[in-house]
Amino acid sequence: MSRITRALGATALALVLAACGSMPETVSPGTSRAEIEQRLGRPTAVHPLPDGTRLQYSRQPSGQQVFNLDLDAQGRLARVDQVLDIEWLQRIQVDRWTREDVLRQFGQPAVVERVARFEGGVWTYRYLEPFSLARLAHIYIDAQGTVRRVVYTDEPLLDDVGNRF
User: Topology of 1-82 in CATH?
Assistant: First the structure.
């Protein structure tokens, strides 16, 4: 094997290992908060939980994943969930969940918009359904901060220069 081939192989291996190190789903239970942040960087949000803390790593607005890393009262990782999927989104309780519930579960949305005939904002999250179907979840949050409606749509397809088909 030539020196160039070995160098390319070593570089490729280093890149793969570095990428794995930044993947929240690969962090082992029991890992401390300090170790998590050293490995993944600062979380996009931190939320207090009744029995610990949630570190949130969001890939919004252009990504389609949000990872919740829940720490126990001792600051050790108890569980990791990727929550931007239809199973988690269908847990939203219309007329019961608040703006804070949505933020704690899904983090900041990809887009916040206003629409006619609704007093409040529409928070849009990008997510993938099985077989990589790009979808959007639109969560209507009224002016008082209560979820009033959730609507799912396909994400528009774009051409090479960003125009919708």
Answer: Beta-lactamase Inhibitory Protein; Chain:B, domain 1 (3.30.1450)
Three-state DSSP at 29 gives coil
The CATH 3.30.1450.10 portion of the chain extends over 1-82
pTM assigned to the model: 0.81
Q: Is 109 exposed, middle or buried (0-12, 13-18, 19+ CB in 10 A)?
A: buried
pLDDT tens profile 116-162 = 999 999 999 999 988 778 999 999 999 999 999 999 999 986 555 55
3-state helix vs strand vs coil in the chain, percent to 5: 25, 35, 35
Top-tier CATH class for 83-165: alpha beta
> Phi/psi of residue 132, each to 5°?
65, 35
Q: What is the pLDDT of residues 26-58, one digit of tens each?
A: 999 999 999 999 999 999 999 999 999 999 999
